[in-house]
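Explain this one:

_____
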Amino acid sequence: MKVNIKKISELSGFSVATVSNALSNKRGVNKDTAEKIIKIARENGYIKDEKIKRIKMVTYRDSGEVFTESPFFSTLLDSIEAESRRSGYDVSIVNLYRHHSDFEDNVRELLNDTTSA
């Protein structure tokens, strides 16, 4: 049986949120608690599912422009992408234009993308 965060939570007696935060090295988890959780995870063969490390940002346009040629929006997108990658996430930025002929194909492709969570 594959060991998941819920199982580690049951084995450790800590909440699912605490286990998730400890395994992701997030702040706010007591050092001793994190060490106990990580030890239990290792002993039970926990393998982190890396496929959930992908973020998709979708902008949907019914009419008009959401992002313009303004430096603000390009800087915003660059910052989102850079910080996400620094945190270990893959980022896909997708623009959907409601009135384009390939809108439905683009949505279908986005929904069927097996590389995402």
Observations:
- The mean pLDDT is 77.
